[in-house]
Amino acid sequence: MMLLVLSERDLPGLLPYPEVVAVMRQALAAHASGEAYQPLRSVTKPPGAGGLMALMPCYVPPPDAGEPDTGEPAADPGYGLKAICISPGNPALGKDSHQGVVLISSARTGEPLALANASAVTEIRTAAVSALATSMLARPDATEVAIIGTGVQARAHIQALAACRELTAIRVAGREPGRARRFAADVAGLVPVPVAAADSVADALAGAGIVVTATTSAAPVLQRDWLAPGTHINAVGACLPAAREVDAATMAAAGLFADSRESALNEAGDVLLAMADGAIGAGDIRAELGEVITGAAPGREDDQQITLFESLGLAVEDFAATAHAYRKALAAGAGTRVDF
């Protein structure tokens, strides 16, 4: 059989942000409606290891499920598996903390169809989901963005939001003001929006209607007192139960949305630690983003409400992005074909 390998170089050209936002809309709607099957991810964190491995399987019926087999592989992907290692020390080495692969396989035969670089898939689809959440939950007149963080996801979110929304200003804050200034200068040429570094998180938030937290911090980097009424927050960085970026007061004050309730209640330190503090309960997660997309649940209540999207990342998102890239690569002759 032939296996298509999609590298870190291949994927950005195959997955432009506006397209991926549309693909994520479909994937999250399928998840919310029960069309897609996705168990909770399995995490292996060996004692003494510096990082962890997560396995994220799913099944999404292909568009032609139930129809006669035409022999065309492009419409056939159904099974997906992401195997990813998270190594917190990687940024100091100039590497993404997320390293791994996404495998998609035939819905009919189970044969492997494509293997994609998981770092690139994760980078692109995570930012695209935040752009989608912003379109669903932020005020329509919110045009200033605060990015908390200076890593891979901070860069991706700047590009995704600028590609999908009319913005007037982007401000960046990080643990080290000097690094934030260098980062802002590096990304300024990537988007048609002024990008500036702020000396503090509070300064970055002043006037921002859209906020992204994309850090590796285990302690809150966002405080309720810094947020104006009507702000929308995409909380991206805290993906472990013992780490949080958002303080309990903000979690209590915000209308909370998640990509998956199950994931948020098992994996999101922002949620779990606020629950341990007594600030919120499990029922305070108002809806999954897919439920807002399908109309099963409302989104923002009014222009004064603070909204927060807790992004954990789902296997159906990785599958959908990789399947989309696979179909485009077949049509364009992109990627590398391996006799497998």
How would you describe this structure to a colleague?
The protein has helices spanning about 10-15, 15-35, 120-135, 150-165, 175-185, 200-205, 250-255, 260-265, 270-275, 290-295, 315-330, and strands spanning about 1-5, 40-45, 50-60, 75-85, 100-105, 110-115, 145-150, 170-175, 195, 210-215, 230-235, 255-260, 285-290, 305-310, 335-340. It is α/β, with parallel strands linked by helices and about 350 residues long. The protein folds into two domains: about 1-120 and about 315-340, ornithine cyclodeaminase, domain 1 (2-Layer Sandwich); about 130-310, Rossmann fold (3-Layer(aba) Sandwich). Strands 9-8-7-10-11-14-12-13 form an eight-stranded parallel sheet. A seven-stranded mixed sheet has the order 2-3-4-5-6-1-15. A hairpin with a 5-residue loop joins strand 5 and strand 6 (about 110-115). The radius of gyration is 19 Å and the shape is globular.
Largest sheet report: 8 strands, parallel
What CATH calls the topology of the largest domain is Rossmann fold
What fraction strand? 15-25%
What's the average pLDDT?
Answer: 94
CATH architecture term of the largest domain:
3-Layer(aba) Sandwich
CATH class of the largest domain: Alpha Beta
**In total, how many domains does the architecture comprise?**
2
Order of helices and strands: EHHEEEEEHEHEHEHEEHEHHEHEHE
What kind of assembly state do the chains in view correspond to?
single chain
Please give the radius of gyration in angstroms: 19 Å
Q: Class by helix and strand content?
A: alpha/beta
Shape: globular
Query: What level of helicity do the residues show?
Result: 25-40%
Strand order in the largest sheet: 9-8-7-10-11-14-12-13
The total count of helices amounts to 11
**What is the H level of CATH, i.e. the homologous superfamily of the largest domain?**
NAD(P)-binding Rossmann-like Domain
